[in-house]
Design a protein that fits this description.
Layout lengths: L3 H7 L2 H4 L4 H7 L6 H13 L11 H15 L4 H8 L1 H9 L4 H12 L2 H10 L3 H4 L1 H16 L5 H15 L11 E3 L3 H22 L5 H6 L13 E3 L2
Antiparallel strand pairs: 1-2
């Protein structure tokens, strides 16, 4: 069973204040089937970040999770809609709406933005879903690469394919997540250093100073270096 703290911690910060114990109790009683109820509760937490992708009501999110959860269990759109909105469906039937008309309402809900955001969260990335195929492909390339009966070109292509897919990820250039923007202060510093280096080189060449004299000079930085701005890499 979900607790109030668990639900709050799973939601974006802006939504946590709207959760009450009554809402948590409703979540824990979403289905008479304990397995269905558990799946819906788990999905409620797993997909909660979609609430940060738009201005959605928490109640609408709960319905979207219920609907998608039933679809993930293999139910049709109509069955999922009936289980998510039993009162709404029964009222349409009582009002004499035809099957085709009810189906249009179901189709419209199935295209709902929030529903599709939740559904997208449930989709397993193909590279994860097909890891076994990826490994099989590598094994085939390895066999070709080691097969002396294959042409040299074919073996090299197989080897290159393996190298490309198994190469080490590129090193992160900015491990601390910080980069330095070149503001006017830094540009001035670069210019001053270049000018200083040129001047010192000229003095050494003209024998006006020795290398030891230059090394002993203090380094004066322009005051506007304080204007340098640091920004985080996104």
């Amino acid at each position: 069973m979900l607790t109030l703290n668990e639900v709050k911690e799973s939601l974006p910060a802006g939504q946590r204040g709207h959760i009450t114990q009554d809402m948590v109790d409703q979540l824990n009683a979403l289905s008479n089937d304990p397995n269905e109820a558990r799946a819906i509760r788990d999905n409620f937490i797993s997909f909660s970040q979609v609430l940060a992708e738009g201005k959605f009501k928490l109640g609408d999110y709960v319905y979207a999770v219920m609907y998608v959860s039933h679809k993930l269990m293999g139910k049709t759109n109509l069955e999922s809609y009936k289980l998510t909105f039993p009162d709404r469906y029964n009222k349409m039937v009582a009002d004499g709406k035809q099957t085709k008309e009810i189906a249009s309402f179901v189709a419209a809900y199935n295209k709902n933005k929030l529903v599709n955001l939740v559904y997208e969260r449930s989709i397993v990335p193909s590279w994860v879903l097909n890891q076994d195929m990826f490994q099989n492909a590598l094994n085939v390339n390895c066999e070709i690469m080691n097969d002396v009966n294959e042409s040299g070109r074919t073996r090299v292509e197989a080897a290159n394919s393996i190298l490309n897919h198994l190469k080490k990820p590129e090193a992160i250039k900015h491990e601390l997540g910080i980069t330095l923007d070149k503001t006017d202060g830094l540009k001035t510093l670069e210019q001053r250093i270049s000018e200083l280096a040129a001047s010192q080189r000229s003095q050494i060449e003209a024998q006006g100073m020795t290398a030891q004299d230059v090394a002993a000079l203090p380094m004066a930085l322009p005051e506007d270096i304080e204007d340098a701005e640091y920004t985080e890499i996104e």
